[in-house]
Amino acid sequence: MTSPGKNRSSLLIKGGHLIDPAARIDAPMDVLLKDGRVAEVAPPNKIKGADEKFDARGLIVAPGFIDLHAHLREPGQTHNETIATGTAAAAAGGFTSVCTMPNTVPVVDSVEWIEWLCQPERGAVVNVFAIAAATRSSKGATLTDFRALHTAGAIAVTDDGKPILEDGIMREALVLGGELNFPVVQHAEDTRMTENCSMHAGARSFRLGLRGMTAAAEASIVERDVQLAMQIPNARLHVAHLSTADALKSVRRGKRAKARVTFEVTPHHFTLTDEDMRDYDSNYKMNPPLRSASDLEAILVALADGTVDAIATDHAPHAAHEKEMEFERAAFGITGLETALALSITRLHREKRIPLARIVELFTAGPARCFDLRGRGSLVRGSVADVTVFDPKKKWTFDAAKSRSKSKNTPFDGWQLTGKVVATIVGGKIVYSA
Amino acid sequence: MNPARGSLLGIEHLEAAEILRLLKFARRMNPDKPRPLLKGKRVLLLFYEASTRTRSSFEIAAKSMGAHTVLIQSAGSSIEKGESLLDTGYTVRAVGADIIVIRHPNAGAPYVMAQHLDVPVINAGDGLHEHPSQALLDAYTILRNKKTFKGLQIAIVGDIFHSRVARSACHLLSKFGVKIILCGPPELVPDIATTIAPGVRVTRHIEDALRGTDVVMLLRVQKERLSGMKIDLPEYVARYQMTPARLKMAKKDAIVMHPGPIIRGLELTSEVADGTQARILEEVRNGVPTRMAILARAMGKMR
Lengths: 434, 303
Description:
The structure holds 2 protein chains of 2 kinds.
Chain A: E1 11-14, E2 17-20, E3 25-28, E4 30-34, E5 37-42, E6 52-55, E7 60-63, E8 65-70, H1 83-92, E9 95-100, H2 111-117, E10 127-133, H3 146-152, E11 156-158, H4 167-180, E12 184-186, E13 199-200, H5 203-208, E14 212-213, H6 215-231, E15 236-239, H7 245-256, E16 260-265, H8 267-271, H9 293-304, E17 310-311, H10 320-323, H11 340-351, H12 356-363, H13 365-370, E18 387-397, E19 416-426, E20 429-433
Parallel strand pairs in A: 1-6, 2-7, 8-9, 9-10, 10-11, 11-12, 12-15, 13-14, 15-16, 16-17
Antiparallel strand pairs in A: 1-4, 2-3, 4-5, 7-18, 18-19, 19-20
Helix pairs in contact in A: 4-6, 6-7
Chain B: H1 16-28, E1 42-47, H2 53-64, E2 68-73, H3 85-95, E3 99-104, H4 109-116, E4 121-126, H5 132-146, E5 153-157, H6 164-175, E6 179-183, E7 200-203, H7 206-210, E8 215-218, H8 233-240, H9 244-247, E9 255-257, H10 270-273, H11 280-298
Parallel strand pairs in B: 1-2, 1-3, 3-4, 5-6, 5-8, 6-7, 8-9
Helix pairs in contact in B: 1-5, 1-11, 2-11, 3-4, 5-6, 5-11
């Protein structure tokens, strides 16, 4: 992990409404940050004497948001994003910690690359946690050195962008991961069923003449993985960007059986469906693809009822020349760091009446639990001084051209949204303020 | 998206009245009596995929109206060197293209062009998506043989899934209330196909498709697009090949159509291909006046 350093002086966040689901707090509270830690949390006006004050009147104060799934594109694809630009976008989106995916060039499958990612020269403005490749070069054949990667600071392993297809390799990964208490993150897609596919298989893909990825291509892998997680003692499975109702059923079954199965969903999968793409706009192309309305409904239910563990962005920046082309040839992925909170508040809170506290949990305590990020995801005394301050009522229009990400590939350009980040504090230091 | 006026990207979003205008204008077009409607215009034919009929008939249509044509094919052009679709588009526009006709193996490729260029783009077939000029020439052919769309029933037999011809035909004929029956095995004719337009039905039985049918449209099994799909060809021939005996199940005056290329002995027998009910070569002939109308419309000369 790399972090931009901590603030020695003290900062008092005053007059705000604290939502800290892990500590069961949803009340007006002042928060004092000192030496990079939370020094005190107390009802309004009880804390005296701080070097600096932050006026949070009318705002929500929350533990710093954690994104379990972002592509920061380093090493090797700096035309799309760098750790510096990606974490700047993260800070603007309220994320104080970002977990970066290893499907880079080359693949982050060694201790050397983990260490390289964590060097201060990368210019990270928020905490970056490295996820390492699960197999060498993510080729799905030979496991990487989990133990060494774990010791070097990797927080999970995955071949994201690709699945671990072979049953035997997935079993090995879960066994070894279980011994180390290391989550294995699966991009669930049976690629034998999705060759040349560019969107969800349904009426729309048939009409557009695009080959479709079936829901079964995701659900079959999730089902297999959950079965394995139920059989292997201590195995930890994390399903990345779950997008289908059928896969959700498998995960629910695993959770009921007390298997250590967690999963994330993305804002685009609870906001858009396959019917929303127009004129072969490749800003609607991502993997997993936008699914059917009934898949989206199932995800909304799971968000509301507490089943979903985390909202993750799957921030996947691509330069214009990788997107402005034939839909079937365009790169998969959209940016997401700067729109995640606003889409969640707009769609989940304002339209679906999911309480703000639940949404905050999905950005904080939930993801911290998935990858065991100790001292994060809550603001109890002694926690790391990572704080996100936002205005849940602020209306604004997202302008992709002004994004801090190097890439502008988003379907949400020009969207009117509600809920905006006002300040992002990492290690007691304000790294972003609106 | 706002494509340049006169573009033809597909049939789906074309209004019935506009289709009738095009068909009416096509009737007045005759390649043997040239009309210089496109005098001095440059028509760029951008072919990223093999074509015999479509390419030659667009070329003849353009030339018979006085246009210059330039043919660019992926082999032997900068496309081979890795130039992107859009850069090729900008290039041919800079060269002075007034109309771009594009055939491409990827669905939606003409949309990419139309989104960024200020000249009319005509879709000459994009992947599995649409083939609007084929649907128009087929409609032209049907009207010449059947006088009206009213009360007609068409059976489209074969590889619907991989067929842009079928998708465009469904959109067009559905707008005029034609009953459309799609027939073939589930791999080639998925049930979801019924959602493409109103009045479309799927059947697995050739007898069911042919009973009471006025037009039988046969499609080739597109081996080059199967993408790993396994089709049992002998089984396909046994169940769906159009033979004289099967054709008798359709109406007496039914016509047989095929967008070509035909594979004798597979989707149809030679007796059917060369029989009195076949209109396969007439379709090809009708391609020229239909494409003349499409090009005239592109230049705002369809009056």
